[in-house]
Design a protein that fits this description.
The strands form four sheets. Strands 1, 2, 10, 11, 12, 13 and 19 form a seven-stranded mixed β-sheet that branches. Strands 8-7-15-16-17-14-18 form a seven-stranded mixed β-sheet. It has a three-stranded antiparallel β-sheet with strand order 5-9-6. The chain folds into three domains: about 210 residues, FAD/NAD(P)-binding domain; about 100 residues, no CATH class; about 130 residues, no CATH class. It is about 35% helix and about 20% strand. By secondary structure, it is α/β, with parallel strands linked by helices. The radius of gyration is 22 Å and the shape is globular. The protein binds flavin-adenine dinucleotide. The site of flavin-adenine dinucleotide has 35 residues, from α1, β2, α2 and α15.
Length: about 500
């Protein structure tokens, strides 16, 4: 059967793209390698506690904010119930060496006030920084429905300045700089590499508001599934796309599956990791320089992660995350530090939606190279030395968390751990990067339009990581098909 479009990969960006195309009357097939759509969002359970994997909270989903408008437009909002994070402090930054704590509240006004209270002599730095974040967000089409659709925003994400350069130009206060840089853990790129513009477009949405979703990532996946069905999207789960067929004149004509079938189509939106996409395209479809560029894209950091359960409720993680920095310097050279020098991100896990947290997830950013010695192994055939290594890392992670969070008072016990190899094998990230490829100064990431007629790219590599970034990428890719002006005009009706 021939479809108007095939969407490859049913993560958030692929699901968004499939809905957008189907909402506009196109016949769409969505193909996902995993047995379920949105595998990254579904998490897993241990000892009665559900641990989310690819979604804990998001910015910009408060009423009238960008993700709220996107979800209403996509017909998802009525299927989701938001779990508001603490308006007066959704993220606590704990700097261990300096004995300093800072709470990020919702809203630019309260954030400005908290920052000025904590750093009274840094008024000019705080105000200039917040104004710059806000104006960076305002310059991005779709995030701001009134922004112009030119490409300059994209270039400032490649040419810089970096976040570090920007902060250095504003202040000499190391603690303030570390506080304003901590959210680089949400996208996995160090402050000395990420463009200020890129950082701002991600954190700016959290400065508006921070919310979880009742039931976590699974509820979001279920909402997407229901909408796919409503719109008649033909969804192929457990089907791997092995190649794309391109006609001799250079136009895409179909998508081949591992079981030998070919889905003929007029066009495709491919949302997989860029290196995986390259493997699907026939020889000669792309120029050698493009291939070299894609193959050379650097990955975001990976992580060691620890999942713990608790016999008693853990109000410390109720509606808030805890970011621990051993010192103000801990974000530099992100991932390339010992566990003891590494920042740590702690977030809640729940036994039942609506209850107080009954567990937590601890994420220590680490380079994928940390587990390179075992990279040829897969789950089930890992050598004993890997097990010993993991045990040692687990012991150190537990000790650090005990030291950093005396509030937990030994109430928790270990349920699971994971390493960069787990991220690689279960997160569909060829090298184990938590958020796919980096967005960093000097690196040209792929854009939605390609040289192959009818082949469009979406996904976190194209715009930015996070649910908001992945949804945005779907709009950016499909805007080339459906018309950006038309999409933006329709979105404005959902404001
Ligand atoms: C530990 C962790 C925590 C996170 N926490 C948050 C958070 O709190 N908030 C937030 O907003 N974001 C968070 N993120 C980031 C967010 O989950 C991702 O940025 C987003 O889900 C990426 O969506 P995507 O569609 O671009 O990619 P993916 O979800 O990777 O989608 C690509 C899909 O393609 C499929 N695929 C791959 N190869 C093939 C093939 N050959 N054929 C068919 N299908 C294929 C994959 O199975 C996958 O489902 C987190 C990520 C991680 C790893």
């Amino acid at each position: 059967m021939t479809h108007d479009f095939v969407v490859v990969g049913a993560g958030v960006s692929g699901l968004t793209s499939a809905l957008l195309l189907a909402q506009h009357g196109h016949s769409v097939a969505l193909v996902e390698k995993s047995g379920q759509t949105a595998p990254l969002l579904r998490g897993f359970s241990r000892r009665g506690v559900h641990f989310d994997t690819g979604f804990h909270y998001t910015g910009g989903i408060g009423k009238g904010e960008p993700l709220d408008v996107f979800f209403r437009y996509l017909g998802l909002s009525d299927r989701l119930s938001l779990l508001p994070f603490g308006a007066r402090g959704f993220d606590t930054i704990r700097n261990v060496r300096d004995g300093f704590e800072f709470r990020f509240p919702s809203g630019y006004g309260p954030l400005r006030q908290n920052l000025l209270q904590a750093f009274p002599s840094e008024r000019s730095a705080v105000e200039t920084y917040l104004d710059a974040v806000r104006s960076a967000c305002d310059s991005v089409p779709y995030l701001n429905l009134d922004a112009s659709l030119d490409a300059r925003g994209g270039l400032s994400r490649v040419f810089g300045p970096t976040l570090k350069e920007t902060l250095d130009s504003l202040t000499a206060d190391k603690i303030l700089k570390s506080v304003l840089s901590t959210h680089c853990l949400l996208y996995g790129v160090a402050p000395e590499e990420v463009a200020f513009q890129q950082h701002a477009c991600i954190v700016g949405s959290y400065y508006l508001s921070a919310n979880g979703i009742a039931g976590g990532g699974r509820s979001l996946a279920t909402a997407f599934d229901a909408r796919l069905e409503e719109l008649g999207v033909e969804t192929h789960r457990g089907c791997e796309v092995t190649s794309l067929s391109v006609a001799p004149e250079g136009a895409l004509r179909g998508v081949r599956l591992a079981d030998g079938r070919e889905l003929r189509c007029g066009g495709a939106v491919v949302t997989v990791h860029p290196r995986t996409m390259l493997e699907m395209v026939p020889e000669g479809a792309f120029r050698p320089a493009y291939k070299t560029r894609i193959m050379g894209l650097e990955e975001t950091v990976s992580a060691f992660m620890l999942y713990s359960v608790s016999d008693i409720p853990l109000p410390i993680f109720s509606g808030r995350n805890l970011f621990v920095l051993p010192s103000a310097d801990s974000l530099r050279d992100l991932g390339n530090r010992t566990l003891e020098e590494s920042p740590l991100y702690l977030t809640a896990a729940y036994a039942r939606p609506g209850d107080l947290p009954r567990g937590f997830i601890g994420i220590f950013p680490m380079l994928p190279e940390t587990t390179r010695a075992w990279e040829d192994s897969r789950k089930g055939n890992r050598p004993g030395s890997y097990g010993q290594f993991k045990e040692e890392i687990t012991r150190r992670m537990e000790n650090l968390i005990k030291r950093y969070c005396p509030e937990l008072a030994g109430a928790t016990s270990l349920a699971e751990t994971s390493t960069p190899l787990t991220v690689r094998d279960f997160g569909n990230s060829p090298s184990g990067g938590l958020y796919g490829v980096k967005h960093k100064v000097g690196q040209y990431n792929p854009v939605p339009l390609t040289r192959v007629k009818g082949l469009y790219l979406a996904g976190q590599a194209v715009t930015s990581p996070g649910v908001l970034g992945a949804v945005l990428s779907g709009f950016m890719a499909c805007g080339n098909i459906l018309g950006h002006d038309r999409l933006i005009k329709e979105l404005k009706r959902c404001r």
